[in-house]
Amino acid sequence: MSVDKAEHQGDVCLGAVTVSSEREATITRLEYENQWLLGGISCITHARSMSGLFDSLVALLRPLIGFEQATVLILDEKAGHLSAKISTHPGFAGSTLALNDHVARAMQGEMVRLGDPLDIGVMTRLSPQLRPLFGSALLMGLDVARQPMLLLLTHSDSHCLDEAAGHCLARYRPLLDQALM
């Protein structure tokens, strides 16, 4: 066997090992997420208030997605913005989110990732002490019967809530929608 052929076979075997390792890592991660969710579902079903439900959802999703703060905003069509309904940070009370292209896309079902939300002026009427919390953000519309809502997840580090975090959140969207109905 020639040296070139032997090197090629070695490369093929190494490639197969790499794919197998990546597949095993993905399976392990998904098994962890599933076990975590199964444990969290019982907490959600026992919540007695919107606040308790929100706290359970945050506790369930925070380790999987990696956000620091979460806020649910409700659409006020007359005022032309969304208002914070409930949040993990008390300083978000009274905060509003302007209706812009990013918010509109999220409200229509798209997962919107913002690497630096303050630079594009997403939040309005945001107190100065909250600005450091907005290094990156994920926006996702919630499909609930009562009223159009938006979930805003933030992290203080710019670009921390990346594509993987967005995909993870999208996988659990049905759970969020059902829990908030």
Q: Quick recap of the structure?
A:
This protein has 181 residues and is of the alpha+beta class. 46% of the residues lie in helices and 20% in strands. The protein has five helices and seven strands, in the order H-H-E-E-E-H-E-E-E-E-H-H.
Task: Describe the protein's architecture and organization.
The protein has 181 residues and is of the alpha+beta class. 46% of the residues lie in helices and 20% in strands. The chain has five helices and seven strands. Strands 4-6-7-1-2-3-5 form a seven-stranded antiparallel beta sheet, sandwiched between helices. A hairpin with a 4-residue loop joins β1 and β2. α1 runs antiparallel to α2. The longest helix is centred in the first third of the chain and has 43 residues. It starts with a helix and ends with a helix. The model has no long low-confidence stretch (mean pLDDT 79).
Low-confidence stretches: none
H-E string: HHEEEHEEEEHH
**Counting H and I runs of at least 4 residues, what is the number of helices?**
5
**Mean pLDDT metric:** 79
Strand order of the largest sheet: 4-6-7-1-2-3-5
Structural class: alpha+beta
Major sheet, described briefly? 7 strands, antiparallel
